[in-house]
TrEMBL record:
Alphabetized PANTHER family for the sequence: AMINOPEPTIDASE YDR415C-RELATED (PTHR12147:SF56), METALLOPEPTIDASE M28 FAMILY MEMBER (PTHR12147)
Membrane keyword on record: yes
UniProt-recorded name of the protein: Peptide hydrolase
Ranges for domain Peptidase M28: 137-342
EC number of the protein: 3.4.-.-
Amino acid sequence: MRILPFALKTLYTLELSPSNHVKVNEEEKWSLLKQGIKFIDVTNYFSKPEIPVAIYNYPNETFYDDEVYRISEKINHTVMYEKLAKLTSFYTRYYKSKHGVESAQWLYEELENIVNDVEFIHLNKFEHKGWKQFSMIVRIEGKKNRDNIVVIGSHHDSINLILPSVLGAPGADDNGSGTVTNLEALRLYVEYIKEDGMKNRPDNTIEFHFYSAEEGGLLGSMDVFSRYREENKRVMCMLQQDMTGYVSDEKNEHVGVITDYVSVEFTEFLKLIINKYLSIPYLETKCGYACSDHGSAIRNGYPAGFVIEGEFKNTNHYIHSTMDTIDRLSVGHMGEHSKLVLGSVMETCALGWVLKGVKRQKTKDKRQKTKDKRQKTKDKDKRQKTKDKKNSIYMYKLVLLYIYIYALTTLASWSIFNFHFIYIFTTTSLVTLCKNTPGGDG
């Protein structure tokens, strides 16, 4: 682990990749984000490394076409716009600010209005140590397989990277859009459950997560999934919705399916849902390590996927500033993401899950680390062989020297001069050999 220069005050341990960690202060955290460098803040979880990700048998065809189409027709763009306008009216949703707590309380009340009259749907605040803005979890208890959990995630905080504690951060796209996308999908799904005396209650447990402090290094979601890992909870899949409203080219409108640092098997399932239920196509794209809260799920061994508003290079460049405003977004595009959520929930709510195995998410860093270790071992063996060979050569020379000296002392006359000559010659030769012998100190 390396420490960046000028790391004063409180230090945080950041994970830039599974094998690359740095210690920085808070100002340096924001500096990294300004450079486009994402990370997971593992200050409280450094001793808990990434574990292998579970693999499940996701469907390769859809079974709830009529239901999903019928529910999706009820997506209300006007309601979505109103909710997003309210969410962006808070000066900032920075997780350490009083405004961030106020916006979280507003969101909590919105969720209460959706779920408060259903017995098997529970809304809980998830409190965090170190900041006051809380996360929220809506748990729709499964009627048959309540231990099988499907998670739909988004983060509700925002940030202005210039001066997080001072400047405004409306965060319309990042991530008001994803929050409202999931809010609308939850509203419609709960309405569907209530039809005909709650007959549509899911077999599996469905959870909608609204995370705090994603902008601080996935802090909120790391707390949630780390606790799930400690409690041995079984998360079958997790879909993250982050930045769902910006369209860079209306003639080429699409969603972006993230393909790096995700569950490959679950991502293939998401492509199936997009092709079936969305009116726009997808493009594969990459966003790097720890680009959103799905990274916390993956790190804790849970399969996760991420679908963003478009190809990553063409996503909203106004985020993390006062310019991330609602007028730059397409509520219709957000509605397409709501279809994705509804389709994913419907096609997994009654699925009989089979664990196929576990797979560690390999990275170039890990492969390089193994390669370096092997090379280091080879170099060490090679040096030892060379050292042994030199020792043998010097021992051979030493024996020859003793034989040579013995012959001299036998043949030479024993005058004082010759005796001193032999003594000096012998001593000098032995000293030279000792200095040149590996490990010798003279």
